[in-house]
Amino acid sequence: MEIIVKSLYSSEIRVQVDSNTTIEQLMDKVDKALGIKITSKSLFFSGRVLDKNRKISDYGIQNGNVVDLMME
């Protein structure tokens, strides 16, 4: 499935994942898409901070959903 990651500072990033992808793996995919390693970042979905040790399916994230990226 494809999800969209949006931040305040960059355009949309479209990332291919499956329901068993962890949030940490998603963060790694975002880093690769941006071409840099962001050490301080958080992902949010439906107003909740996503725990890096949980899976996308734990949050009910589905194809086409938007995940927000906050970078410091």
How would you sum up this structure, described in words?
The termini are far apart. The model has no long low-confidence stretch (mean pLDDT 91). The protein has 72 residues and is α+β, with helices and mostly antiparallel strands. It has one domain (2-71): Phosphatidylinositol 3-kinase Catalytic Subunit, Chain A, domain 1 (Ubiquitin-like (UB roll)), CATH 3.10.20.90. A hairpin with a 2-residue loop joins strand 3 and strand 4 (48-49). The chain has one helix spanning 23-34, and strands spanning 2-7, 13-16, 41-45, 48-49, 66-71.
CATH topology: Ubiquitin-like (UB roll)
What order do the SSEs take from the amino end to the carboxyl end, as H and E? EEHEEE
Number of discrete helical segments? 1
The CATH architecture comes to Roll
Strand order of the largest sheet: 2-1-5-3-4
Q: Spans with pLDDT under 50 lasting ≥5 residues?
A: none
Keywords:
Ubiquitin-like domain-containing protein; 72 residues; Ubiquitin-like_domsf; Ubiquitin-like_dom; Ubiquitin-like (UB roll); Ubiquitin_ubiquitin-like; single chain; alpha+beta
Give a quick summary of the entry:
By secondary structure, the protein is an alpha+beta fold. It has one helix at residues 23-34; strands spanning 2-7, 13-16, 41-45, 48-49, 66-71. The protein has a single domain (2-71), classed as Ubiquitin-like (UB roll), CATH 3.10.20.90.
Produce the secondary structure layout.
Blueprint: E1 2-7, E2 13-16, H1 23-34, E3 41-45, E4 48-49, E5 66-71
Parallel strand pairs: 1-5
Antiparallel strand pairs: 1-2, 3-4, 3-5
